[in-house]
Amino acid sequence: MREFRYHRPVDVADAVAVLSAEPQAAYLGGGTNLVDLMKLGVQRPDVLVDVTGLPLDTVEELPDGGLRIGATVRNSDLAAHPVVRRDYPVLARALLAAASGQLRNMATTGGNLLQRTRCVYFQDTGKACNKRAPGSGCAALHGQNRDLAVLDWSEQCVATHPSDLAVALTALDTVVEVHETDGTRDIPITALYRSPGAHPERETTLARGALITAVRLPPLPAARRSTYLKVRDRASFAFAVGSVAAVLDLDGDVVRDVRLAYGAVAHRPWRAHRAEAELRGRTFSPELAGRAADAELAEARPLRHNGFKVPLTRAITVRALSELAEGAP
Ligand code: SF4
Asked: Which of 121, 157, 191, 275 is least surrounded by Cβ atoms within 10 Å, i.e. has the fewest?
């Protein structure tokens, strides 16, 4: 690993000022992804700005019934928070499905959202990768692409976003609070991430130096009936090959409201608006859930090794919604 400087900012403005002024600076949260990438030579920051000492580690209940989660709240603490467990079980389940206990004890909310793809070519500095080295090509497009995207990919990049937490937050219409050099702004989480397009190295809409300070969950009583299903190669510790975050609100058998988001299918957490539109106002059945997933996945373009992701994502959509309709969790 190269030498780097280490900076503990006195406040958020100091952190943003340092990051904005230093082209090769990076924020350090739990370090569970960044330190690995530094060891591999994929990221080579000159200075690390450690944000874990900033007062961003609280979970607050908001007057409107929502929840504000500080950016440095650890994944384990968030998963165990009583309000999260009661009002947003999809979030607790997504967190507990991710990584290992040790990693969840370190990983932060903000860092989790900004973790990098686990595409093996991205992590191998000897391989062509437009995300790591713009213009070098994409070794995954015609290489090993079993774990990669089926929706919204480009010829320049077929990577997926690895976060489970981000998928749950996408289903919950979360707002991301950001501090930039010229002030603060709120970004709907669906507007935080970019499609790969011609510039897969640009993964988010954040300005240089921007710091995520919190995420805000809106009040959503329907989310008390919500779940997260994840399919992975090992039950103990693995990234998703498919996942779904689901909220279902029924009036009798009729779908009054539904929120769905998919993981492991695209460059960003994938909000399934088409599937939701198919479901709303209709009498729920597993067959309807299957048709809704078909509508969402109609534009899927599987790569050579990942055609299985389309029926897999359909199957977990049906299972998650059926379990919720039957009263679980
Ligand atoms: Fe790089 Fe994206 Fe291609 Fe993977 S899929 S090699 S991250 S450009």
From this structure: 191
